[in-house]
Design brief:
CATH architecture of the largest domain: Orthogonal Bundle
CATH topology of the largest domain: Tetracycline Repressor, domain 2
Radius of gyration: 22 Å
Number of helices: 9
Structural class: mainly alpha
Order of helices and strands: HHHHHHHHH
Largest sheet: none
């Protein structure tokens, strides 16, 4: 059993903290969020499960809301925004990754627990929007903005609305309790893309 102390102590001033300790704490927090919900999650229980002291946890995250959203951020894909030159392909990649990461660790149930607490813990929804919502939206927006620079979108295409529809369709499917279709990402991207992509101009035939 790991003693209730930091796994690796700093050996001198300026030495970085052991990243393995961070990982253990975040994994413990994520497991408790998934199984117990935010209200029943506690810093004491997280510290105990991670094998560290409570001060060790507080030195890294200032509050339960801070820790919970940091743990949720671990569900995200940290890789760069896909940029293959095909906007529809890149959008499908982002959405497929979203689907896989949220289903991987019961992410939707955890997000639901976070939203329930927003009126009681304002900091929680603030951290949630900053760490989870904005980065996901930003990846989709970056793909569409690159497509706009390449001249592939209609004039004044509403990129913000397109991002909302792309992400919103995932939550809509989940709330119907229906199994997510295998081709969900392709279908939603194809539908949204038709609404914002520039229509190819037909070549005019000159008669002599």
């Amino acid at each position: 059993m790991i003693p209730l102390s930091e796994t690796v102590r700093s050996t001198g001033p300026g030495r970085p903290r052991d990243p393995g300790v961070n990982e253990k704490i975040l994994k413990a927090a994520l497991r408790q969020l998934a199984h117990d919900g935010y209200a029943r999650m506690s810093m004491d229980a997280v510290a105990s499960e991670a094998g560290v002291t409570k001060p060790t946890v507080y030195r890294r995250w200032s509050s339960k809301a801070d820790l919970a959203t940091a743990a949720l951020a671990e569900l995200q894909e940290d890789g760069p925004t896909p940029s293959t030159g095909s906007a529809s392909s890149d959008l499908r990649t982002v959405l497929t990754t979203l689907q896989e990461t949220l289903y991987q660790t019961n992410g939707m149930a955890i997000i639901g627990a976070v939203l329930v607490e927003q009126s009681h813990t304002p900091d929680l929804i603030t951290f949630f929007r900053k760490r989870i919502v904005r980065p996901r939206r930003m990846k989709l927006r970056q793909v569409l903005e690159e497509a706009e620079k390449r001249g592939e979108l209609r004039p004044k295409a509403d990129i913000d609305a397109a991002v909302n529809m792309l992400i919103g369709s995932f939550y809509a499917y989940y709330l119907t309790s229906e199994k997510m279709p295998q081709a969900w990402a392709r279908r939603i991207v194809d539908t949204v893309w038709k609404g914002i992509a520039k229509t190819p101009q037909r070549r005019r035939i000159t008669r002599h």
